[in-house]
């Protein structure tokens, strides 16, 4: 059987100490396989973003294990973890996290350049993925000269550039109109179809309908999992249980 790209095993995450401690995740286990897009849904405060941060090594589990392609993140040094994120994990954040002093092309190519790719090769790869998400004409523009939707698409291009085996997306269509949002989801779907694993946090049932599976979180616990929905309304019904 094919090994998962992402594996979480009995993961918990507690924020704070003592009387103010908040248990954000409570023993979550999840596998995401090559070629699979998994959507995570749930109300605000259910642990969705915490799950995504743990999956990408941006935060550490209080207990349990997180594995990416056979490497247990808790066993890695800070430098090893940074290299793994740079090479294998693409993040799409709600607030874009673009570097203001860099152009779109420079923002997208930066992870490759940091990992030793020549500037010429990195910029060519950036141009190709900017074209894929429909904003190649913004290559020389700085973030403060872009709309929110344009910044979001550049951020998505940065997450997809290179051979990223795991793509983590936190509400990636939040700043986009419905037509552009569907286009972004199609790009994510195509990347997974080509062999990557994707984890998508969303509040939108119609966006989750692009996924192979939908995982429902409530109070830090997986309360339900569905297969692909025929229509988005099926997901709305499932999320109410």
TrEMBL record:
Tagged with keyword GTP-binding: no
Keywords attached to this entry: ATP-binding, Nucleotide-binding, Transport
Alphabetical list of InterPro entries matching this protein: AAA+_ATPase (IPR003593), ABC_transporter-like_ATP-bd (IPR003439), ABC_transporter-like_CS (IPR017871), ABC_transpr_LolD-like (IPR015854), MacB-like_ATP-bd (IPR017911), P-loop_NTPase (IPR027417)
Gene3D superfamilies found in the cross-reference section: P-loop containing nucleotide triphosphate hydrolases (3.40.50.300)
Source organism, top-level taxon: Bacteria
All residue ranges annotated as the ABC transporter domain in the record: 6-241
Any single Pfam family the record assigns to this protein: ABC_tran
Keyword Transport part of the UniProt annotation: yes
SUPFAM superfamilies according to UniProt: P-loop containing nucleoside triphosphate hydrolases
UniProt cross-references to PROSITE patterns, sorted A to Z: ABC_TRANSPORTER_1, ABC_TRANSPORTER_2
GO molecular function: ATP binding
Identification of the protein by name: ABC transporter ATP-binding protein
